């Protein structure tokens, strides 16, 4: 996960905790706004994690193809 993903994850978790606190205090408008921002931050973190995971998978596929090509030429 990149720095942006880690930052978004930390902010998103913090905002979700703040949502629970606002809901307990009965601050409905603050709960809704903070909840939306938290979901967006967690979505960015999730997208970043999936993007990096797919990038690593692509590197593994290319490495395996290169190994097969090298072994086939011998």
What brief labels describe this structure?
single chain, 74 residues, mainly alpha, 93% helix, rod-shaped
Classify the oligomer. Answer: single chain
Beta-strand percentage range: under 5%
Stretches where pLDDT is under 50 for at least 5 consecutive residues are none
Number of domain modules: 1
Show the helix and strand layout.
Elements: H1 3-25, H2 28-73
Structural description of this entry:
The chain has about 70 residues and is an all-alpha fold. The protein has one domain (about 5-70). It is about 95% helix and about 0% strand. The chain has two helices and no strands. It has helices at about 5-25, 30-74. α1 (about 5-25) packs antiparallel against α2. It is rod-shaped.
What is shown here, in short?
This protein is mostly helical and 74 residues long. Helix content is 93%, strand content 0%. The relative contact order is 0.14.
């Amino acid at each position: 996960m990149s720095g942006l993903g880690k930052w978004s994850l930390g902010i998103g978790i913090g905002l979700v905790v703040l949502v629970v606190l606002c809901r307990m205090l009965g601050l409905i408008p603050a709960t809704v706004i903070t909840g939306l921002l938290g979901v967006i931050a967690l979505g960015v973190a999730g997208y970043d994690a999936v993007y990096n995971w797919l990038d690593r998978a692509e590197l593994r596929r290319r490495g395996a193809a290169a190994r097969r090509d090298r072994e086939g030429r011998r």
